[in-house]
Amino acid sequence: MSAADGAPADDARHGNGDNHADDADNSTDNSTDHRPDNSTDHRRHIGDGLPHIEVTGVDLVRVEMPLVRPFTTSFGRQTVREALLVRVRTATSTGWGECVTPAAPVYSEEFTDGAALVLRDHLVPALLGQGHRLSAGAVGPRLAHLRGHPMAKAALEVAVLDAQLRAAGTALAQHLGAVRERVPAGVSVGIPDGGIEELVHQVAGYLDEGYLRIKVKVQPGFDVAPLTRLREVFGDALPLQVDANAAYHAGDAAHLAALDGLDELGLELLEQPFGAARLRDHALHAPAWHTPICLDESIHDAADAADAITMGACQVVNIKLGRVGGLSESLAIRDVCRAQGVPVWCGGMLETGVGRAANVALAACAGFDLPADTSASNRYWAQDLTEPFHLEDGHLTVPTGPGIGRTPRSEALEDAEVERLLG
Questions:
Q1: Could you tell me if 149 and 265 lie in one domain?
Q2: Residue 100: exposed, middle, or buried by beta-carbon count in 10 A (0-12, 13-18, 19+)?
Q3: pLDDT tens-digit profile, the chain (423 residues)
Q4: Domain of 224?
Q5: Residue 364 near residue 181 (C-beta atoms within 8 A)
Q6: Residue 100 shares a structural domain with residue 153
């Protein structure tokens, strides 16, 4: 087990504690560069083979969406989701993308008000400053000189691609080369207000609905006991994993003891136990556990994935298209992981049907072999912005209509705040 409380975590199980959390430099040793050449073989050129579009208008659309039940993680408690949508208009088609930023900068540096500002004042002007005729493949290169803001950039990329695909009458899944007509669905369960027994009740309900995998949010003080109780009630056969959202510290003996306890429960994976920048902490402690480490917040692009795999910091990668800047980078990360035999799966960010449609198409691609966080619409919303996604035999059907295959319902946008940036 871990070192006793108050002592450094330097036992044989976790290695030398002097090497981790408190180091001033917790970055990668790049003396040998294992990073892929992202400009060539690892990046699919999104939009290739489609007619270019002439953009006539770009809008930001904000809609408040109350959750059917509070969603609590180590970041905090959420009861309402403010969806920020990007609408790209052409003479013949309209494309939609969803910016998955939270209201506050808790998951990453991005947040919704900041994303709206950077889209309005920087990203859209930079995208269209080189001409209104473009393809989705041009979004990344035209915005490359602007640092950060991957969620805002991803929303623009998807919206432009959606408009292209609708004009061509082609489905997103077809364009991405999807290999499945349905994707296996997991569900993410927040930290419930009612404690462990409410967690048991919620999990039982999701299993009755047919979800194939349960992911439970954990944090220090809500980890080993609730997961042990789930094992007692549902048995060892339940596909069960946990997501710490970077809530644990490698220099805290009590935190390591809790992670050790989770490791004894036969979990599918342990997602992001340590901070996003703490690749070395993950690499140091991963060998001590039987449970595979999955990285989420640490992976921003294909180079990060290559570094993490080379260091031994993870055995699984969660790909969220918003976190990594769009579909192009998502597939680049997938390619790097597949080459190293590392499984990937598609994560979620409380998306409406707009963002969920893009996620489901991505999850249908080769290499996304683990159940995704692509829950049915009724997991989060009494009424989705779009035609809802339904769970059928533990799967979601991949949209086959043009573009992302979903469009916001006009009545759902009646109270939306619309900011017209162009046109």
A1: no
A2: buried
A3: 333 333 333 444 675 443 433 333 343 343 334 344 433 344 567 999 999 999 999 999 999 999 999 999 999 999 999 999 999 999 999 999 999 999 999 999 999 999 999 999 999 999 999 999 999 999 999 999 999 999 999 999 999 999 999 999 999 999 999 999 999 999 999 999 999 999 999 999 999 999 999 999 999 999 999 999 999 999 999 999 999 999 999 999 999 999 999 999 999 999 999 999 999 999 999 999 999 999 999 999 999 999 999 999 999 999 999 999 999 999 999 999 999 999 999 999 999 999 999 999 999 999 999 999 999 999 999 999 999 999 999 999 999 999 999 999 999 898 889 999 886
A4: 174-408
A5: yes
A6: yes
Sign of CA dihedral 360, 362, 365, 367: negative
SS3 364: coil
**Residue 110 in tokens:** 């991005």
As a 3-state breakdown, the chain gives helix, strand, coil percent values, each rounded to 5, of 35, 20, 45
Give the H or E element holding residue 82: strand 76-90
- Contact between 324 and 296 (Cβ < 8 Å): no
Q: Which two tokens stand for residue 154?
A: 């991803």
Q: Which of 20, 89, 320, 379 is catalytic?
A: 320
Only one residue has tokens 């609408």, namely: 87
Q: Are residues 192 and 321 in the same domain?
A: yes
State yes or no: is 320 an active-site residue: yes
Catalytic residue among 217, 255, 278, 282: 217
Q: Which two tokens stand for residue 373?
A: 């966080």
d(CA 260, CA 252): 12
- If asked whether residues 93 and 210 sit together in one domain, one would say no
